[in-house]
Amino acid sequence: MMISKTPLEDWILNKISSNGELSHLTRSAIEAFQLEKIRQTISYARSKSRFYRNLLAGFGSDPVITINDLSMLPFTVSDDLINHPLQFLCVSQSAVERCVTLHSSATTGPAKRLFFTKEDLNHTLDFFHYGMSTLVKAGDRVMILLPGDRPNSVGDLLSRALLRMNVESIIHGFVISPEKTVEAVLKHDIKCLVGAPVHIFALFQSGNGRKYLKGRITKVLLTTDYVPDIISSVLESEYNCEAYSHYGMTEMGWGGGVECEAHCGHHMREADIFIEIIDPKTGQVLPDGEAGEVVITTLNRVGMPLIRYRTGDISRFLTKPCPCGTVLKRLDKIFCRMNAAVYLDSEKPLITQLLDEELFALPGVMDYKAEVSTRGNKDCLTITLSLSSKSNRDEVCAAAMEKIMIIPQIESCKKRLFIEPITCFEEIILSPGAQKRVLIDNRKEHL
């Protein structure tokens, strides 16, 4: 099958070459544009933002002459957005079109606050438009399983972007009851879904989902959280549904990068965001191909630019050319989130992703909750499954226990780890779509 080139390439070409001086996109053109935008962003932030004026005070009037010079500047971290949100503002508060309060799924502490102007939101609209054109065309009907009741919320922006393409959308919101959402899909004759991976997976795994969605939903965009390989695999092999992955976060302006038809890495919005991969311990920039922490610098943000913001996500740039033929770089899937890693007796962390690949492979598993606590002088792992109504609960729970026992991080410390018998919720319980799924650490020494 012929793989179409990602539509993001032409979009980025038009942003870089607004006067049409470039006939095609090249890496050198992208990098020259990024360097100029980085320098403009630093100058703008220093003159308008009290936070960056103070942070960059000792770095000279023009600290970035080459891309490599950026690595000499200090990082911005989550605590900065929590403790000093208004100091980041480069515009008056009256010019803020959208303010987002962002609670972390891994902590119960204060929230981050992020501010966006109308121009900032328009950049996101553009990305949603061109990113979604990979999946849908005029006349298609999309259900958005994300919040969209507020103006300029992520669901509202996506719906407006689809309207540019003459694609009709239904903003449904997060999935609470899979069976009721399946009814809405059938009622509105939906062909494509956009939502959290576990929520979309639960729709297909539900009783009516298994009965009605195969062959009806042909494409899905999995977003807002890590995308387990097993979920994409099951959707495609059992339901004939092509699964695309999106990587983004609110700090990026929601949109970051999306897969093309080749399904081998996220093509990033390189005219809007510059990405570095760093060693989480040393802070040194790593070469392409090596895994490390994703660090972003926004290139055209007006309200609240971010310079070298540490995301806490672990990934890498892929080095082989994409089969679609684009010159855009590809960011691999997110391997884990640093603040969601739980260490038992092994030097390697137990992370949600390891449990995902084992548990979602079992028939009827729609979601699960996992937490580590303390029992006596041992760590205690408790897992509770959420199963579809027709599942054999005893069989699935027994199979789940066998699956997790062979995970290396668990197998290596079985003698010092108490594992509760795996049980099921009495009713279908899905992880809140507004939060990223994590392995909860309730041990006293970690509170």
UniProtKB/TrEMBL annotation:
Species in which this protein is naturally found: uncultured Desulfobacterium sp
Entry-linked InterPro entries: AMP-dep_synth/lig_dom, ANL_N_sf
Gene3D superfamilies documented for this protein: N-terminal domain of ligase-like
NCBIfam families according to UniProt: DVU1553_fam_AMP
Any Pfam family hit: AMP-binding
Protein name from the UniProt record: AMP-dependent synthetase/ligase domain-containing protein
Domain AMP-dependent synthetase/ligase residues, every copy: 98-297
